[in-house]
Amino acid sequence: MQFTYKSAHIDVTPAVTATGFKARAKMNRELSEGEDAGNEKYERDLGIFATSTEAVEYARRWAIDYCDSNGF
After folding, report:
1. Domain map of the chain by residue range?
2. Which positions ≥6 away from 10 have C-beta within 8 Å?
3. Where on the phi/psi map is residue 46: left (φ > 0), alpha (ψ -120 to 50), or beta?
4. From the centroid of its chain, how far is CA 62?
5. Tens of pLDDT along the chain (72 residues)?
């Protein structure tokens, strides 16, 4: 699932594993003028969930919280 939050483009598509669905979040944002780093964040392992819906929802909430807490 992909969505935009504030200035971040976020992908929370889960990875299928032998034991369930791995929640993960990849975020990119456009750099402001004069900014040269810090425009990407990728969390590969936010936990394993029984369903893809649970994994997506957890990663979505994590990404929004990360953006809010880190000015992303």
Report:
1. 2-70
2. 2, 3, 4, 25, 26, 27, 60, 63, 67
3. alpha
4. 7
5. 999 999 899 999 999 999 999 999 999 987 666 666 567 899 999 999 999 999 999 999 999 999 999 888
